[in-house]
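tool=predict chain=A
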Amino acid sequence: MRRHIFMYLFFFAALWIIFQYANEKKIFGAQETKIANLQERLKKAEDSLRTIGDQSADNSYFGLEGNENAYTYFDKFDVPVEGLQAKIEDAVISKNTTDGNPLIPFQNANRIFRINKVKVLNHKWILADFTDGKRWGELLLGYSIASDGSIDFQNLESLIYPIY
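tool=predict ok
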């Protein structure tokens, strides 16, 4: 009898070991597949970040932020550059009124044009996007900052896109 118990225990232990081996092999294979998929996703994400970084560098090339030549120009006239871009953008957008924006040279009988987005290019120029909800256009503005901190704008060029 004792011999049969040890034989059954041996078979049970052997079956248990085979079951554990097969189960762990399946789990290991699934984990290997998951790791390979995650590594592929990581590579794609890193490539996307690199592309976005390159595009961001290209897009910020024309801008006031980080433009040493513009900073030098403002330093020469003792204009503080901290928060200057936001101040200029706010000054352009604050010209939007219920009657329109005086910087926009186009008139519309039914609606009024308002500036939506502003991009400060450098120490002299601004790009602005405007719309009346149906038509839209762009402005190239020149600006100068007086010694008292006031900002004067000049409309250098403007265009309005035709309705298609």
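The longest strand covers residues 136-145. The radius of gyration is 33 Å.
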